Amino acid sequence: MSTLAMSTLAMSPLATTAFDGMLAVLIAWTAWQSVTSREVFRAVMLFVVFGLLLALAWLRLGAPDVALAEAAVGAGLTGVLFLESLGHLRRNKTVEPPETVAQSRLRRWAVGLPVVVAGGLLAMVALRLEPRVPGIAGLVVRHQGETGVSNPVTAVLLDFRSTDTLLEVVVLLLAVIATYGLVPHGPAHHGPRVRPPATPRPPRQPVLVWFVRRLAPLALLVGVYLWWVGSSAPGGAFQAAAVVAAVFALLRVSGMEAAPPPNARPMRLLMVAGSVAFVSQGLAMLAAGRVFLDLPETVAYGLIVSLEGVLAASLAACLIALVAGAPRPPRQSGERP
Amino acid sequence: MIDLLRDGLTIVLLLGGAFFFAAGTIGLLRFPDVYSRLHALTKADNVGLGLTVLAFLIQADSVMQGLKLVLVWALAVTASATIANLFANLAHRQGVREWRKPEDRP
Amino acid sequence: MMFILLGAVLFALGLYGAFARRNVVLKLVAVNIASSGVFLVVVSVAPPLPDGGTDPLPQALVLTGIVISVAVTAFGLALARRLGADEGRATLDDEEETS
């Protein structure tokens, strides 16, 4: 796309401002509709649209790495997570409980006013910050050569701030463990039993099956590609993991159960692998007399790419486990199946 | 000269695409039942996207770029066909009747 | 500029939803919207690079933030599911009118 007329068309500041303004209004509107919706299903659908529009905003902000993550996660995985849990709620629990006019008015004012103040303060402070202080960006650009990767975001994530990334991987793992820990088990469980999936499984849709059969391998390929390309272009371990997990979610909603089950032993090992690989890389550096998580310049590229590979697989396993939810509690022997 | 022609063609194709997208959106908003809305959405959007992709295709710098554009188009078309099928199927199973003119109603 | 304002608006909207809504799933949707607002502010506050690019540091921070909010959301939903299984309700009210 390099010809003259096209570039003048694209560069026109008025056109871009108008586009940004429209995008911002649309995003704010979907958020408003989602937040004030009384039906959970409607709110979730609007949230998915919100995520897609937000991905466009990230592109406009020159952050394609974030845009990829937002599209795959904000719009895809989080939406699936919400929908999954909706299926577990009882029918009448998926709308906001009714309340009197006085109650709702009180709520609107008591919450609305402080919130408007908080938002206003955030905007004020953020706009005040604008005077350009020389940021850390210069440092990143100057030292990027030492990391062996040409995507600065990947350089920050896997080298300069790798502690953050290590902790991020650990947080995701902890979320899976905590989710598994919430499974009610055994006779200690009292209270009204709710049959989880009350709706019968819909019949398999041949067209959907046809489509998913062709899409899934392609999407998996995209996931691998995102990992591989992450060192030099937008992409990376997390985006790759999100795409792979989305493929799993797609297989799940179209009724094609994926093997092995998300909580099988190999999958559990894979979930831990990311944290283990990261920590052992750090410890290896310590043993070699360097700093924890340091990446020596000569091997930085290879280490980053392989570490990202392990991370991608491990994060994908964690996300898949989160989408699939905790395994069913084991049946007590006394209980009728 | 060639560049100018190409840019002109791109603009015409983009405008055509925008027209079909607009028509599809109006259909989605104005048609009376789920089936005709799906019809408006999928038909118009597929042509709209097709024209848009075509507009960019003649601007592509390399064969790879062009192939990626075609892939995007193919994925979007099959996905939208699949989703339309799912929607229509669900509506049909839930017993949603198709809209008829008032004088044709039984 | 525009996206800083949008971020603040989203933050306020999300905060409103998190406090004003009673259904826990709706609360979680709202929290996600609020955090998207914060992410927007974090990236758009950074001054552009000399070559016009976007500062990679806040981008990396936001990427990490997105992963953390997925983890938090998933855990919150697991809690909501457990709440539904144990008490048959979907709100955090002290007592819920039987319906």
Give structural notes.
- The complex is a heterotrimer of chains A (about 325), B (about 110) and C (about 100).
- Chain A is mainly α and about 325 residues long.
- Chain A contains 12 helices and no strands.
- In chain A, helix 3 packs antiparallel against helix 4 (about 65-90).
- The longest helix of chain B has about 30 residues, at about 65-95.
- By secondary structure, chain B is mostly helical.
- Chain B is built from 3 helices and no strands.
- Chain B starts with a helix and ends in a 13-residue tail after the last helix.
- Chain B has one domain (about 1-95).
- The model of chain B has no long low-confidence stretch (mean pLDDT about 85).
- Chain C is an all-alpha fold and about 100 residues long.
- The chains are: A mainly alpha (about 325), B mainly alpha (about 110), C mainly alpha (about 100).
- At the A-C interface, helix 2, helix 3, helix 4, helix 5 and helix 6 of A face helix 1, helix 2 and helix 3 of C.
Pattern of helices and strands of chain A: HHHHHHHHHHHH
Question: For the record, what CATH class of chain C applies?
Answer: Mainly Alpha
Number of domains of chain C: 1
Q: Helix share of residues of chain C?
A: over 70%
The strand count of chain C comes to 0
Shape of chain C: elongated
Number of domains of chain A: 2
Q: For the CA atoms, what is the radius of gyration of chain C?
A: 17 Å
Enumerate how many helices of chain A there are, as a single number.
12
Give the integer mean of the pLDDT values of chain A: 80
Largest interface: A-C, 100 and 80 residues
Could you tell me the number of beta strands of chain A?
0
Summed up, the helix count of chain C is: 3
In this structure, how is the largest beta sheet of chain C organized? none
Overall 3D form of chain A: globular
What's the assembly state of these chains?
A: heterotrimer
The overall average pLDDT of chain C, rounded, is: 85
From the coordinates shown, what is the CATH architecture of chain C? Orthogonal Bundle
